[in-house]
Each structure stands twice: as structure tokens, then as C-alpha cells.
Amino acid sequence: QVRLVESGGGAAQPGGSLKLTCVASGFATKYYPIGWLRRAPGKEREDVLCMGPSDGPSYYLDSVKGRFTISRNDAENTIYLEMNNLKPDDAGIYYCATSSTRYDCDVVHSRARWDYWGQGTRVNVSS
Fold it and tell me: Which of 43, 47, 70, 90 could cross-link 60 (Cys pair, CB 3.0–4.6 Å)?
């Protein structure tokens, strides 16, 4: 059974940092695309970043380029999202997700094929 469990959310001040962790089970992360998505208050869910099994990170929000980094430790089936220089607009619930396919990130993103989700971890950014 596929399971994704996020942690690491919390409160941060503008300019601060947080590192989110997603621990996966029931599948091997090295074979599947893993994404971080977020739902900001009053907004639709949006894809933030993705890392595929054979390609580098794909950014889907220009606003996080240079500030957010996705990484993975396939030996531990764990994916990370390091967020630096946080801004109030970064607040929301962050979800780790994967697909039942082995498509590249851009295909999963364009087809919205995020089939499995974690429960999410909330990030608040305010002074």
C-alpha cells in the first residue's frame, strides 16, 4: 500500500527557512516521480516542484526558483523540500505526491497524474 507522510511544517518568519520531509512506503521512490504540491489559503492546489527517477528537478512555480530545493534519498525512500527566504505567499498546506505511472515530471504535471498524496503539512509565514 502506497503511503506518503509529510513532516517539518510550522511557523516561520519572512526570510526564514523550513525543511519538509516526506517518507514514502509501499513503493520504491527511485522509480517514480515525486512532487511537492501546495494549497494556499483561498487558492487552488498548485504543483511546486518535482523530481523524476531519471531527470533533475522541475520547477512549476517561478516564485520559488532560487529559494526552494527538492532532493531525495532513495536508500531511505525519503524526499525533502528545503525552503529558504520564505515569503508570506509561500504559506499553505504542502503535500508530497507520486504517480502510479513512471512518467517524467512534466508529463505527470501536464496530465495531473498525482495519484497518491500524503496528508499534508502546514506552513505559516508571518512576522
Answer: 47
